[in-house]
Amino acid sequence: MTLHDCLRSCWNILTGRGSTCAKVVNDAISGKRGLRFRPCLEALEGRLVPATRIWDGGGMDNLASNAQNWVNDLLPGMDDIIAFDTTSNKAAVIDAAFTATVAGMQLAPGYNSTVTVGRNFTVWNGLTHMSGTINGDSDLILEGSSTAANGAIMTGIGTTTVWGNATFSVTGALPGGFTLNGRAFNVNANATFSLTMGRELVVSNGAVLTNNGRFRWLGGTIQINNTSSILNKANADFDIECNETVQGQGTFTNQGRMSKLPGTVPTGVATVSTLFNNQSTGIVTANWGTLKFNGGGTLGGNFSALNLARIEFDIAEFSVGNGATFSGPSITALLPSAQFTLQAGAVATSQGTFELSGTISGPNEFRNTGTFRWLMGELHDLKTFANVGQMDIVALIPVVIDSSAVINTGLINWLGSNIQMYNNANQERIGEIINRGIFDIKTDSTMELRPLPGGTPGQAQFNNIDGGTVKKTMGNDFTNIQVPFYQNAILELNARMIRFTGKYFQTHGSAETKIQNGAMHGGNDFFFSAGYIDIGTMGGVGGGGILVVPNLTIENAATLRGSGLYYGNIFNSGTIEPGNVAEQIVGAISIWGEMDTNGVWTNGNLTQYSTGRIRLGVRSTANNDHSFVWCTGNVALAGTLEVNFLPGGAIANMDAFDLVTTRASSTWIVSNLNTLIVNLPTGFTGVFDLNYLDGTGRRGVRLTLTN
């Protein structure tokens, strides 16, 4: 090893660059044999201070290895700084015969030519690129902190690499920025790329900027032109500390961490307008202000909005991959002109607060486990929207369920405008709601059935099943359900009103419709074949529940019970039970008619068939403490009349109970009432009068006790 090499190694030790020859120097100083070493302070001092060698282009060629191209014809060495300035605008080529390493490199303002890197070249103490172009097909390694500004350009098919703990900053007092024109640029682990306010980074002509360390976006715009890209690798950080824009027709791919940080201005909007691909390992976090994506792309990984920040998707269509997750206590928003399209087999999850104003579509599942606020827009051709958390429908204009199924096992609060459900079989545009959780209606809006022009009616429907509960807890008028409603769980109206203008089906034995001091209207297609309809509070005679159905057919496995008013005609093959005998509650069901087109009330008729039953609870004559049925129209009774005396009554000899009554002008037929069941108290007998006529001409069934 020569003395020069040893001194070079010493310089490396002092500057933190490491050395393999420290031992050689120590051996030389200690006088060990085998080395010819003559101390020379002049030589050592001269090489420890890097000299600046200025390009003057004085040679007959453009080669950096030609000493005549440098001021004073002094050829730069590995410890020198090479400088290109206004001394000469002649192009330069760092050729294979030139040193592979220099201490520094400067392209000063005013140098408007090109330095071509013709060999793999290392600048170990930093590059200052303030003007001109660095070109070449070979690699440039920057081991020290470097700067670029004033429109500096790097081009060629080689790669520039920021190494170690170095920083590459697009900054400086001069205006302009930095352009990568087709050249690859790598930021290694532990290294930093910094873009400051007022500067511009341009990635163009197929260039790829790859970040394996940290990218600090402190200000200025980023332009990614067509076929070019920025790649933020796994475990790398892309920190957004400004409110600027990534723009252009290129691609931004995130495999690592992208974060919107407060920077100098904690509020405001940073925008990514290029195609944005967040891969499965990518984590996007908005800590302050708003981070907006409006260039489309593919979404995987995780998006998290924190600290009252927002993440917004706008304008474009985004393809959502499997496992994509939207989380955080703050808001992620899909704006009106944006669309999420789920990929085949993809399941995406919202775990935080998500606002929908655009469109979600796709052949698989979007799952909400957090809070989902539906402001406007539609679910279109989406296989499943699964709500496990809370969905608030707060739209001021109609929202649309088109060729999509909403499956609720959590809580849905319907607070806003109409819900439109498409119903077109031949175009396969059918909307569906399946409720297994709580669907709380807090509005007087309409769930619309929307057949498309020229279409065949399909099977759009609202299914309340598997222990689900549909209830109305707010609103002062009717909520109108035009969609066929399959009620096979719990429906509750507490002093509220729903009108079912579509078909109504209750077919499950455990289903229960509860009209507690509220009102429910049904159309001609009202099918009640099993379960219970409870009208009124069931807490006493004359409760406030109202059921309005033109023709109510109570089939064999169904029971109408409670205490309230029924408007229409009843055809009973099942059970009518005023009150609730099992719970020892008495009640009264009053059967009224309908209002015709002239505003005149018609009489309501009761027809009971051979399988029908009227079940009554009786306690006392005082304060009408017994159940009864009162009808304004005609009565025809067959089947069974059952009377059950309840505990706690105070009865006496000759007490009489009117069980079923009608108006004087009504038709009364009881000849087919073939079964009378009465569970009398001990010591009493009862006598039925099936054609009782009171002093006003009313007819009915009366039970009189004797002892």
What this model shows, in words?
Helices cover 4% and strands 49% of the residues. It has 3 helices and 73 strands. The chain has a 73-stranded mixed β-sheet that branches. The N and C termini lie far apart (132 Å). Residues 1-47 and 538-542 have low confidence and may be disordered.
Structure summary:
The protein is mainly beta and 707 residues long.
- On the 0-100 scale, what is the average pLDDT? 89
Helix content: under 10%
Share of residues in strands: over 45%
Query: DSSP helix count?
Result: 3
Low-confidence stretches: 1-47, 538-542
How many extended strands?
A: 73
Taking all Cα atoms into account, the compactness measure Rg is 43 Å
Shape: rod-shaped
Q: How many angstroms separate the termini?
A: 132 Å
SSE class: mainly beta
Largest sheet: 73 strands, mixed
What are the salient characteristics of this protein?
single chain, 707 residues, mainly beta, 73-stranded mixed sheet, 49% strand, disordered N terminus
Chain-wise SSE layout:
Blueprint: H1 3-14, H2 22-30, H3 41-48, E1 52-54, E2 81-84, E3 92-94, E4 101-102, E5 104-107, E6 114-117, E7 121-123, E8 127-129, E9 133-135, E10 140-142, E11 146-148, E12 152-155, E13 159-162, E14 167-170, E15 178-181, E16 184-187, E17 192-195, E18 200-204, E19 208-211, E20 214-217, E21 221-224, E22 229-232, E23 237-240, E24 245-247, E25 251-254, E26 257-260, E27 269-272, E28 275-278, E29 283-286, E30 290-293, E31 297-299, E32 302-305, E33 310-313, E34 317-320, E35 325-327, E36 331-334, E37 339-342, E38 347-350, E39 353-356, E40 359-368, E41 371-374, E42 378-387, E43 390-393, E44 399-402, E45 405-408, E46 411-414, E47 419-424, E48 429-430, E49 432-435, E50 438-441, E51 446-450, E52 461-464, E53 469-472, E54 478-481, E55 485-487, E56 490-494, E57 497-500, E58 504-506, E59 512-516, E60 519-522, E61 526-535, E62 545-562, E63 564-572, E64 575-578, E65 588-592, E66 606-608, E67 613-618, E68 628-631, E69 635-645, E70 656-662, E71 668-679, E72 685-693, E73 699-706
Parallel strand pairs: 1-2, 2-5, 3-6, 4-7, 5-8, 6-9, 7-10, 8-11, 9-12, 10-13, 11-14, 12-15, 13-16, 14-17, 15-18, 16-19, 17-20, 18-21, 19-22, 20-23, 21-24, 22-25, 23-26, 24-27, 25-28, 26-29, 27-30, 28-31, 29-32, 30-33, 31-34, 32-35, 33-36, 34-37, 35-38, 36-39, 37-40, 38-40, 39-41, 40-42, ...
Antiparallel strand pairs: 47-48, 70-73, 72-73
